[in-house]
Specification:
- This protein is an alpha/beta fold.
- The protein contains 13 helices and 19 strands.
- Helices cover 26% and strands 23% of the residues.
- The strands form three sheets. Strands 11-10-19-18-17-16-15-12-13-14 form a ten-stranded mixed β-sheet. Strands 1, 2, 3, 4, 5, 6 and 7 form a seven-stranded antiparallel β-sheet that branches. A two-stranded antiparallel ribbon has the order 8-9.
- α9 crosses α10 and α10 runs parallel beside α11.
- The longest helix is centred in the middle third of the chain and has 19 residues.
- It is elongated, with a radius of gyration of 51 Å.
- The two termini are 92 Å apart.
Length: 481
């Protein structure tokens, strides 16, 4: 790179057309600032620069005109190939210039790096009238001690080995050092450019390439929004169960399916049809006992309470059972709870029922207690399982009801009468098949899936579709709609 420095007085008196195209750095007064650019034209009054930088920032004007009276100093960054380089080799004064560096990523302006060179002539100013010497040797630096290295004596530049960091910075300069294009400062007109795009013509061209059968199917299908289903589905029917003899109430599941209540007579017919078609009581009681055990285990705290490391707080459940099928279901539930390690106590006053005796014989194999007197029951328990009455034989149970109410433990009833257990307010109730019109004394209702085939329901005139889905027990809510 050929580098010069001079004051403006020398430039104006000696410049000629041979310096058109040179890159210079012009320092003007403080109000104007500094400019860097390529000389387009010059005379005694002004200098015209193109591709100019103003104070390190690209100028918005294509050309900049600087008056000579405002110029304080001029530094040559590079000169035209046709300029006189022979006189440059004859100068010996040390020239300090600033070479502009293109903007790096992260900078908002370009920088200048000072560069020092040592010329070989004793002249203090360059001679601009001589013709350039194409055989001129590159200018090298002279060490401060005055000794000229062998490489310099041979007119060969000293090549300094760059460090890894310097090579990386140099690569960054080449990659990210391109000056910002002035066109980027203009806002992009999206509407104007979008108008140039003929969307209808493009869509017609795309559709013309599709087979006829595909176009016909798309036209028949219609258009859908982003939140609509492409596959047409049947509307959900919330009333999937219809009964010939409906009860006074209707219930609804968490999914919105309507479960009608049935009369006591229809309920007896449904149980009779299940026995007749092979879904015996032994099959149904196991399902009722398991459903009751699932609910109770969760009410007792689940895995937080039933943990081997928590043996000092192991729960106790008391099952109050009567001489009927509901009582037998309570004993079955107590047996399944004992298989989970829960301490259980079964209370029975009368064990003359055959179903109850069968379940009691199996329960005694667990080694847990069977009590026949109320005074032997513990004063504090974790949960009370009530199966004292059914629809066929409701009666007053005053002594045991007094004990249950004074215990203050949550009460779960299995297959209670629709009017509730006399003297006992249940918090939860477990039902099988289809529900009756239950009183509020039975608390929150849960329906157990007894796995009755549709043929059993159809045999008594009930149109049935399972509302259980992935669950074995579902809660029922009063349908107030």
């Amino acid at each position: 790179m050929k580098i010069y420095k001079n004051f403006v007085s020398g430039i104006v008196t000696s410049m000629s057309e041979q310096f058109v195209g040179c890159t210079v750095s012009v320092k003007c007064t403080e109000e104007i600032g500094s400019y860097q650019g390529q000389i387009v034209d010059l005379n005694k009054d002004d200098i015209i620069l193109s591709k100019a930088f103003h104070n390190g920032v690209p100028s918005t004007s294509q050309v900049v005109v600087l008056s000579t009276k405002d110029i304080l100093n001029v530094e040559f960054i590079s000169i035209n190939e046709t300029s006189n380089t022979n006189d440059i080799n004859q100068t010996q004064n040390k020239v300090t210039v600033k070479r502009p560096i293109a903007k790096r990523a992260g900078r908002s302006f370009s920088e200048s790096v000072p560069c020092s060179v040592q010329s070989t002539s004793s002249q203090t100013q360059p001679n601009f009238n001589k013709k350039p010497d194409n055989n001129a040797q590159p200018i090298t630096e002279q060490p401060a001690n005055g000794k000229v290295p062998l490489a310099e004596s041979a007119n060969k530049p000293i090549q300094k080995r760059l460090s890894h960091r310097q090579r990386a910075l140099e690569r960054d300069e080449h990659t990210f050092g391109t000056p910002i294009d002035q066109s980027l400062s203009q806002d992009f007109d999206f509407e104007k450019n979008l108008a140039l795009f003929n969307k209808e013509a493009v869509w017609q061209e795309i559709n013309s390439l599709k087979p006829d059968i595909v176009r016909q199917s798309e036209n028949n299908r219609g258009r859908y929004r982003h939140d609509e289903n492409v596959i047409v589905a049947e509307p959900t029917v919330f009333r999937q169960i219809t009964v010939p003899s409906a009860g006074e109430k209707e219930y609804v599941t968490d999914n919105g399916l309507i479960i009608p209540s049935i009369t006591l007579n229809l309920h007896r017919q449904l149980i009779g049809a299940a026995d007749r078609l092979g879904i015996s009581w032994e099959r149904r009681v196991e399902l009722l006992g398991r459903a009751g055990a699932e609910i109770i285990l969760q009410l007792l705290g689940g895995s937080h309470r039933l943990n081997p490391n928590n043996a000092h707080q192991w729960p106790t459940v008391v099952a109050l059972s009567g001489p009927h099928r509901s009582g037998a279901a309570g004993v079955n539930c107590a047996r399944q709870l004992s298989s989970h390690g829960v301490k259980t106590i079964v209370f029975v006053e009368n064990s003359e029922d055959i179903f109850l005796l069968q379940e009691l014989s199996l329960y005694k194999l667990t080694g847990n207690k069977v009590e026949t007197k109320v005074k032997n029951l513990p004063a504090v328990v974790d949960l009370i399982l009530v199966a004292l009455c059914d629809e066929n034989s409701p009666k007053m149970i005053t002594p045991i009801a007094r004990w249950a109410n004074s215990n203050r433990a949550p009460i779960l009833a299995i297959e209670p009468p629709a009017t509730g257990t006399p003297g006992i307010l249940s918090k939860f109730s477990l039902l099988g098949g289809l529900p009756l019109s239950h009183s509020v004394d039975n608390g929150r209702l849960y329906l157990c899936n007894l796995a009755l085939p549709n043929k059993v329901y159809a045999d008594v005139g009930i149109t049935y579709r399972s509302p259980f889905g992935p669950k074995f027990v579902i809660p029922l809510h009063s349908n107030i709609s």
